[in-house]
Amino acid sequence: MAKLLVPKEVSEVALALAKAGFEAYLVGGCVRDMLLGREPKDWDIATSALPEDIQKFFPESVYENAFGTVGVKTESEDPKLKVIEVTTYRIEGRYTDKRHPDEVKFAKTIQEDLSRRDFTVNALAMNLKGEVYDPFGGKGDLEKKVIRTVGSPAERFSEDALRLMRAVRFAVELDFEIEMDTRRAIEKLSHELEMIAKERVRDELVKILETPQAAKGMILLEELGLLQYVLPELREGLGVGQNLHHIYTVFEHSVRSLDYAAKQDYPLVIRMAALLHDVGKPRAKQGEGRNSTFYQHEFISAKMTTKALDRLRFSKEFIEQVTHLVRYHMFYYNVGEVSERGVRRFLARVGPETVPDLFKVREADRIGSGAPKATPYKNRHLMFMIEKVKNDPVSPKMLKVNGDDVMEILKIPPGQRVGWVLAILLEEVLDDPKKNVKENLTVRVTELGKLSDAALKKLAEKARTTKDEFEEGLEEEIKKKYFVK
Questions:
Q1: Mean pLDDT of all residues in the chain?
Q2: Is the dihedral of CA 199, 46, 169, 101 positive or negative?
Q3: Per-residue confidence band for 260, with pLDDT thresholds at 50, 70 and 90
Q4: For the residues of 3-69, what is the DSSP string, one character each?
Q5: CA-to-CA separations, 397 to 9, 276, 438, in angstroms, rounded
Q6: What is the pLDDT of residue 97?
Q7: Do 405 and 377 sit in the same domain of this protein?
């Protein structure tokens, strides 16, 4: 049955090698996934043919590495099948730097090739007849649902310390348990993860977070001593109790929030924000017990999030998106307390495009706190209010005059004065959208143009720092909640 799942592009490549007198096996994850009834993410072939032989049979191929892997191009429309990776049997030398083999040698048999692989469930090979070659008991481990290294755990992890995280990743991807000797070796060698490039650690973390079992992955990372080398900031919440509004510690709450986001299949940016939204609480905490406070923890959390994600080499865009969600996750809204003007200012602060994601982070926060409903009535009412004012001006781009108009009206070159004027105009139309008429704004630009730099700058700064009703309401609510004045 497994053979029937093999795409024709893959079979054709393997068959061509076999007809030329070489061995060819499907290997690794694709075999594992087929045996589990899962759709493979990629297809790899191991062969006794040398790279030059592979290139000879497949002129449309690419060979740009030192590991014996040739990319054979196909005519498939499926992105996963456009290039089939064909690798010569190989064995690897010592790993002096715990990351890369000192040398790669070509091997003669499939068993030698499989012996260098990380885990038994990945050390499987299948021939063109659909027969599985399993020298290390991978099929049995699939049935038992365990992750176990090929041979000595200490040797496998010392070869490439990233395997420490890969064990966790496979455990959550497959919903397996890590075998005890393998687990003990991870605990003992966890410090070697420090030697791994942050980009590689980041990639494994992303794969963990993108699984439905992401929360289990974070708990495993902590239990095995790995989290301190990945997200040490998150560990600060371990054992940190909250107040009468929370039944979980900061760490538990963060992991439960992530669990909700993962189970809802939210994108990575929301999962990461759900995990890190309260990361600053331990540093913000004042007092102990039911009446402890975490005033302004969202600002601290945002700074810590930026630092953590930058250390892990996430893209600037991703860091900005996550940090923005963390910074504004504490928005406050009560029906009847916030006007349309307040909603417009809220949208101006967070950006209309951010609102859907912000609501998802709030859902995760609520469920992670033990609340029964992800979206209470007041949040649904806020959605209604946002829909009501969505066409009102909430950004400089929505003003009926732009920077070019300001420069033309005032006969000034590009510079700070243009930005100051636009900031003041936006603040005024946030108060009253009816003012967003070109004739009216043209008159107002002329009036503002008569002010000195100092006066104009002061007005612009006041406009940019005006608290909206969300912020004022939040501040008062927090003071009442935490018994401060």
A1: 88
A2: negative
A3: very high
A4: GGGS-HHHHHHHHHHHHTT--EEEETHHHHHHHTT---S--EEEESS-HHHHHHH-SSEE--SSSSE
A5: 50, 31, 13
A6: 58
A7: no
Task: Kindly report the length of the chain.
Answer: 485
Residues 27 and 119 in one domain: yes
Question: Tell me, what CATH number does 114's domain have?
Answer: 3.30.460.10
pLDDT at res. 294 = 78
Q: What share of the chain is helix, strand, coil (3-state, %, to 5)?
A: 55, 10, 35
- Report how far residue 70's alpha carbon sits from residue 383's, in angstroms, rounded to the nearest whole number: 53
**Structural domain total, the chain:** 4
Do 350 and 250 share a structural domain?
yes
Q: How far apart (Å, rounded) are the C-alpha atoms in residues 171 and 191?
A: 20
**Cα separation, 317 vs 328, whole angstroms:** 17
164: containing domain? 145-230
3-state secondary structure of 70: strand
Residue in the block written with tokens 């030059």:
52
Global pTM value: 0.83
CATH of residue 153's domain is 1.10.110.30
| CA pair distance 44, 55, nearest whole angstrom | 16
Rounded Cα gap, residues 125 and 425, in angstroms: 68
CB 82 within 8 A of CB 73: yes
DSSP labels for 336-403? TTS-HHHHHHHHHHH-GGGHHHHHHHHHHHHHHTT-S-SS-HHHHHHHHHHHHHTTS--SGGGSSS-H
| Nearest residue to 271 (alpha-carbon basis) of 365, 170, 138 | 365
Looking at residue 263, its pLDDT comes to: 96
Domain match, 386 and 424 both? no
Q: Are residues 222 and 202 in the same domain?
A: yes
Contact 147, 179 (CB under 8 A): yes
391 Cβ neighbours under 8 A, 6+ residues apart: none
**What counts of helices (H) and strands (E) characterise the chain?**
24, 11
Q: Residue 262: CB partners within 8 Å, gap ≥ 6?
A: 209, 211, 212, 213, 214, 215, 271
Measured distance CA(267)–CA(318) in Å, rounded: 12
Pair (259, 297) in one structural domain:
yes
What is d(CA 292, CA 296) in angstroms, rounded to the nearest whole number? Answer: 13
pLDDT for residue 67: 79
> Quick one: CA dihedral 199, 202, 204, 206, positive or negative?
negative
Report the distance separating Cα 111 and Cα 133, nearest Å: 9
